[in-house]
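Weekly structure sync, notes
Attendees: PL (lead), two postdocs, one rotation student
Agenda item 3: pending single-chain targets
PL asked that the sequence for the first pending target be pasted directly into the notes so everyone works from the same version. It is reproduced below exactly as submitted, 169 residues in total.
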Amino acid sequence: MERMLSQRAHGSAPRPARAGLAQPVAAVLTDRMDDVAVAEAAVRLALARRSPLLLIVVMPPRAPGSSLGPESAMVRAVLARVIAKVGPCGTGYVPEVFHRPAGSASRLAAARELLALAARHRAAAVAAAGRGPEGLDAFTLTEAAALYGGPYVKAAAPAAGVPRRPTSP
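Predicted structure, written out during the meeting:
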């Protein structure tokens, strides 16, 4: 007779529950003043889901022979500014670097590549600034997620003290 799944053999120790892989919440950091607001929005989502952060630092297009990985000085500077604000919340984080596409790629191409990076890390949600580099703002990411499939995209409110429109000289 076959044993039911809920029954245990006598004398066997209880097995720990299987923990699924964590699905992080991604924050798109573009080295702008809105980065802290984006990271704080991502932390709120991550705390609600009890998941870590995926901090995606957007860098310029990759030059031949250059290596801007998560350990480079430029990436660490962006991460340090954000971690100083969201570090006390106690969520873990995974740094990742995204190089903007070179050439004349469409705005949706950059968004699609960034969402593919988030999907490779199994991100459940992506927080991005409403205003950002072309193709990497929250509205373009939302459009790309709707067209090509992707995680939920949260538009972070702009940081306090940042003008909504650029002032003309």
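Discussion points:
- The radius of gyration is 20 Å.
- Residues 35-49 form the longest helix (15 residues).
Action: rotation student to compare against the earlier draft before next sync.
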